[in-house]
Amino acid sequence: MRVRGKASVRHRSIPTASADNAVRGHAQASPKGATRTVRLGVATLGKDGAIAGDPRLDPDCSGGSVCREIRVRVSICIYAPSQITSMSLLKPLFYLLVSLLISSCTTVGINSHKIADGDSFPADEAVSQDYPISNNGILRILTLNIAHGRNQAANQLLLEKEDIEQNIRSIARMLKKTNADVVALQEADGPSGWSGNFDHIELLAREAGYPWYYRANHAESWLFSYGTAILSRLPVAETIQHTFSPSPPTLNKGFLLGQVNWMNDTEIGSALAVDIVSVHLDFSRQRVRDEQIAEMTEALANRENPMIILGDFNSEWFAEESVVKELAEKSRLSVYQPDAIDLHTYNSKRRYDWILISDEFAFVRYEVLPDIISDHLAVLAVIKLKKSTESSAENNLKMVNQDR
Predict the structure, then answer these.
(1) Crossing angle between the packed helical segments 200-208 and 161-178, to the nearest 10 degrees
(2) How far is CA 172 from CA 70, 108, 189, in A?
(3) Counting Cβ atoms within 10 Å, is residue 318 exposed (0-12), middle (13-18) or buried (19+)?
(4) How much is the pLDDT for 235?
(5) Yes or no: domain 3-17+108-395 corresponds to CATH 3.60.10.10
(6) How far apart are CA 102 and CA 252, in angstroms?
(7) Are the C-beta atoms of residues 244 and 110 closer than 8 Å to each other?
(8) Environment class of residue 88 by beta-carbon count within 10 Å: exposed (0-12), middle (13-18) or buried (19+)?
(9) Residues with Cβ < 8 Å from 327, sequence gap 6 or more?
């Protein structure tokens, strides 16, 4: 266990994809019963049936990745309510076309490891420092898959920028209400043509009051840039971004680790280093999830700090091959009431979102929040250090002081 002195207030963000690499998205509204033109960057879908794709080349597309101009012609119209049956038949074709455009120029994510020059990265000066922080021996942590800011919509491509911004602000209001110290997010977008072309995490952090915020881009192309993220009111001293091995046809997933300095006891007068890991696993195949858990376990094997892993695992405890259960049983991590029947987080019946804590911690409270702000529900946990861990931290501090 490492014990650190009180951290200074500074901020540094993980480098993200430039907005120049994202293609702007736009959808034109249409009156009831009329056909509608939908623009996807420079690819235009209209009633004339023409689609001309000319995506900008992503400079990261190299070393085997192929970026090319795409030109396709199909007939897609959005019909009046009386023609819903025809429209429902064309929806799969629309999403297939979008998938082909996305996969045409997708790059492999880049892993990175950054350590602060000092006790912490600098904080964002645009964020107010007036929000309360837990210094009474408890830590409030929350996880949420924010679904690219689309809330309950079928796809973010079908929303206007203003709608997505409002959805992000709704999430910010929920975070302020819960007063979480650290937040883990999944499907967190940087400037992306398919979701309004603005940084969702920067807006969310500034609206909700989180001076330290970091986003790991696991999946990037001309249309999108997204991954996992961490928001913190506690100083952050280290970040690790890891993208799992590619698993086509699904897009890349990964995790982001942030080491926070937690003043768990003002009497001790020192910050405890805690590793917070925001993770997102593949939704489609058990084999891929198994490989991703093994990859994450290996990547985190040498970490010595108390650890909290939380996120969207796309796996339930009682599944035939549960990666959550496997991770808990093969590590020093525990979960809250794995057999509970009232903690569903997805589709009213699936518990896909989990918070796992190392054996230095104990759960004080755990709840799934009712706020409808995504296709997932947020999970909030209040945890504390066990008595033996508190004593160990205090003894370590005394030994450090005696050496001075």
Answers:
(1) 40
(2) 38, 30, 15
(3) exposed
(4) 95
(5) yes
(6) 12
(7) no
(8) exposed
(9) 293, 297, 309, 333, 356
Cα–Cα distance, 382 to 308 (Å, whole number):
12
pTM of the model: 0.74
Order of all β-strands in the sheet with 182-189: 107-108, 212-220, 225-232, 182-189, 138-145, 379-385, 361-368
Angstrom distance (rounded) from CA 400 to CA 108:
44
Q: Which residues of the chain have pLDDT under 50?
A: 1-84, 395-404
- Angstrom CA distances, 199 to 32, 163, 190, stand at 32, 14, 4
Contact 214, 259 (CB under 8 A): no
Residues in Cβ contact with 123 at an 8 Å cutoff, skipping those fewer than 6 apart: 9, 10, 11, 129, 211, 212, 235
User: Which parts of 1-67 are beta strand (E)?
Assistant: 3-4, 25-27, 38-40, 43-45, 50-53
The one-letter amino acid code at 346 reads: Y
Which of 268, 325, 331, 341 is closest to 300 using CA atoms?
331
303-358 per-position pLDDT tens digit: 999 999 999 999 999 888 899 999 998 888 999 999 999 999 998 889 999 999 99
Contact at 8 Å (CB) between 55 and 100?
no
Q: How far is CA 386 from the centre of its chain?
A: 28
Q: Which residue has the tokens 């794995």?
A: 338
Helix (H) or strand (E) holding 388, with range, is helix 387-403
Spatial separation of the C-alpha atoms in residues 181 and 355, rounded to whole Å: 15
- Residue 269, Ramachandran bin (φ over 0: left; ψ between -120 and 50: alpha; else beta): left
**Of how many residues is the chain composed?**
404
Q: Which of 10, 11, 3, 1 is nearest to 263 (CA)?
A: 3
The maximal CA–CA distance of the chain, rounded, in angstroms, is 81
Q: Which H/E stretch holds residue 200?
A: helix 200-208
Do 314 and 273 contact (CB within 8 A), yes or no?
no
Instruction: State how far the Cα of 185 lies from the Cα of 143, in Å rounded to an integer.
Output: 6
Question: CATH 3.60.10.10: which residues of the chain?
Answer: 3-17+108-395
Strands 70-73 and 50-53: antiparallel
| Torsions phi, psi for 336 (to 5 deg) | -95, 120
DSSP structural state of residue 198: S
CA–CA distance, 104 with 218 (Å, rounded to integer)? 16
